[in-house]
Specification:
183 residues; alpha/beta; Rossmann fold; 4-stranded parallel sheet; 4-stranded mixed sheet; 8 helices; 8 strands; globular; binds guanosine-5'-diphosphate; binds adenosine-5'-diphosphate; transferase; GK/Ca_channel_bsu; kinase activity; Guanylate kinase
């Protein structure tokens, strides 16, 4: 397989970010207009910015793609992609289904679309543990069915169910030698 980008996709709190860390590739840091959660670091988890900043970047042609998700703007900048170019080419990113489609269009089979799935109840419990309030949980889970249906477009779906994090991690780690050098 000659893969240059692994795209993690799945419902909120399914475990995308956790499994991305397990895979351990250089991560493309994307932009968001949402506020940082406790423990999230600007420039590491996301580039956090005002919506106006992101809209200006779009107008100036500095965004590869953008997406509206639950009232906030998210996007991948051309600079974010260049930042990780030093990593030998092979890298990973977390995107919603629309972003994943762009990756597929641009890279074809060099994008490996990796879906992460968990039950609604599991996602809900994790959102609760993450400190989300009832309104935030409802907003995040409103798209659950659609996000599960969108996993259909992935190359591979890994289930990250309760107590199954180690197993899901093993499966993701096992992919590493199959990915090729990328370019
Ligand atoms: N299209 C696109 N989606 C993104 C980007 N960055 C993050 N996302 C997606 O935005 C959604 C919301 O992310 P986030 O606020 O971190 O919430 P979480 O999924 O609940 O952890 C997720 O589906 C991410 O995959 C981006 O640059 N482009
Ligand atoms: N299989 C799992 N079992 C239990 N907890 C998990 C599992 N996968 C992820 N988590 C926890 O759930 C929360 C959400 O995971 P995260 O990777 O941030 O999800 P996402 O990036 O999809 O929103 C985190 O606190 C993480 O530690």
């Amino acid at each position: 397989m000659n893969v240059s980008l692994v795209v993690f996709q799945g419902p909120s709190a399914s475990g995308k970010t956790t499994l991305q860390a397990v895979l351990g590739l250089p991560r493309i840091v994307t932009w968001t207009s949402r506020a940082p959660r406790e423990g999230e670091i600007d420039g590491v988890d996301y580039h956090f910015a005002e919506r106006e900043t992101l809209e200006r970047m779009m107008r100036e042609g500095r965004m590869l793609e953008t997406s509206e998700y639950r009232g906030h703007l998210y996007g991948t900048s051309l600079a974010s992609i260049e930042e990780t170019a030093r990593g030998g080419g092979l890298r990973s990113i977390v995107l919603d289904p629309s972003g994943a489609r762009v990756a597929r269009e641009l890279l074809g089979e060099r994008a490996l679309l990796l879906g992460v799935s968990a039950s609604r109840a599991e996602c809900e419990a994790r959102l609760l543990a993450r400190g989300s309030d009832a309104a935030q949980i409802a907003a995040r889970l409103a798209g659950y069915d659609e996000e599960i249906a969108a996993l259909e477009g992935c190359d591979l779906i890994v289930r990250s169910g309760e107590g199954g994090l180690e197993r899901a991690g093993e499966i993701v780690r096992a992919l590493r030698p199959l990915l090729g050098a990328g370019d």
